[in-house]
Write the structure tokens for this entry.
Amino acid sequence: MFTDEYFIKLALQEAEYALEKDEVPVGCIVVFKDRIIARSHNLTETLNDVTAHAEMQAITSAAHFLGGKYLQNCTMYITLEPCVMCAGALAWSQISKVVIGARDEHRGFMGKNISLHPKTEIVTGIMENECSTIVKNFFKNKR
């Protein structure tokens, strides 16, 4: 039941919440022992804060829940590949696994030769079409 697809679907719900707020529709879930401990979406426009990406919000929330700065034994499910800033925060958090829906060829960390913590497992392409479509449609409607 608790598959990567299951949690990416929940992250997509978060992306929908961002879309309703006219934010770039990116959603994120952090899971610890099959339990959701953080959920978030982009809030850069709402908070007028360029660092208020879904991943940054989720890292802060998960760390608060766990009572420490490291997210070992946690998995982040994110609809869009993290940017360089978020990848840096993920590396410092020592998160165990990151599951990415769609790649971000322009701003994603993977194309910039940046790596996360050496022990972090990365999985990509989970529900890739759904995750990329919501972002593409958002920007198409903006033009």
User: Anything to note?
Assistant: The CA atoms of residues 51 and 79 lie 17 Å apart.
